[in-house]
Each structure stands twice: as structure tokens, then as C-alpha cells.
Amino acid sequence: MRASELRELSDTELVEKLGQFKEELFNLRFQMITGQLDNPTRLKQVRHSIARVLTVQRERAVHDAEV
Fold first, then answer.
1. pLDDT per residue over 10-28, tens digit each?
2. Where residue 53 sits, what CATH number does that domain have?
3. Domain that holds residue 38
């Protein structure tokens, strides 16, 4: 998911997306340990998606503090 798409979401939707990404990352790590992971690059993609969500949340927090 692109950062521009994330910026269009509300705060509650961002928190929900973050939870979904973290749950997916947990499941992917579990699959990696058990040797069932088909696409190891998905780990990196999910970590980057988590970083994007956190970045958008931080941008909003900084913007709200300035206003």
C-alpha cells in the first residue's frame, strides 16, 4: 500500500491497518521458522508497509502539534 493511499485513511483506519500488518508479519515469521514460507520477500514488503503507516501517523502528530 502506498503512502499516498494511507494518507487518505482516517486515524482509526490507520490503526486497524497497522494491526493487520503486524499480524501478517507475525504469521510470516512463524511460517519462516517452520519452513512453510513461500515468498520470503513478503517479509520485507510487510515491514515497509508498517513503516509507512507509522510515518503517516507521525506526520499527523507533528502537524497537529504545530496547529
1. 999 999 999 999 999 999 9
2. 1.10.287.310
3. 3-66
